Amino acid sequence: MTTPTKSGFDILPGYDGAVIAISAKGHITADDYEKTLTPLVEERIASFGKIRFLYILGPEFQSFSAGAAFDDARLGLSHLGDFERIAVVTDIDWISWGMRLFAPLIPAPVRVLPVDAIEDAKAWISAD
């Protein structure tokens, strides 16, 4: 018998200040954005001005609800100029393609890396 994956965002330890590092697990809903990610992003922007964002969508990630996809777009667009760096780590093709498609519209460096390059993403997001 397998244990079901806990859904939601895990805030990764070892990052503080202007760096937010999260891992998406299971089925992400609008509630996950509204109760966890959006308040965290807004609090860090209020405290630090610009933030660095490491977003991991690894093997435990399953899907987004339509509401979560909308909240993701709304969060990104409403804080477009508030990111200093963005790293997205995933092996999911449609997410990688989508990030690469929209990266030129984001006024911050964006890197999209495969899951096996997670240590590179962590180093880059934290580098001075």
Give an overview of the whole structure.
By secondary structure, this protein is an alpha/beta fold. The protein has a single domain, classed as SpoIIaa-like domains (Rossmann fold, 3-Layer(aba) Sandwich), CATH 3.40.50. 40% of the residues lie in helices and 29% in strands. It has 4 helices and 6 strands. The chain has helices spanning 30-48, 66-78, 93-102, 118-126; strands at residues 8-11, 19-28, 51-57, 61-64, 83-90, 110-113. Strands 1, 2, 3, 4, 5 and 6 form a 6-stranded mixed β-sheet that branches. Helix 1 (30-48) links the parallel strand 2 (19-28) and strand 3 (51-57). The protein is globular and about 30 Å long. It starts with 7 loop residues before the first strand and ends with a helix. It comes from Hartmannibacter diazotrophicus. This is SpoIIAA-like protein. It holds the Pfam family SpoIIAA-like.
What key phrases describe this protein's structure?
single chain; 128 residues; alpha/beta; Rossmann fold; 6-stranded mixed beta sheet; 29% strand; globular; SpoIIAA-like; SpoIIAA-like_sf; SpoIIAA-like protein; STAS_dom_sf
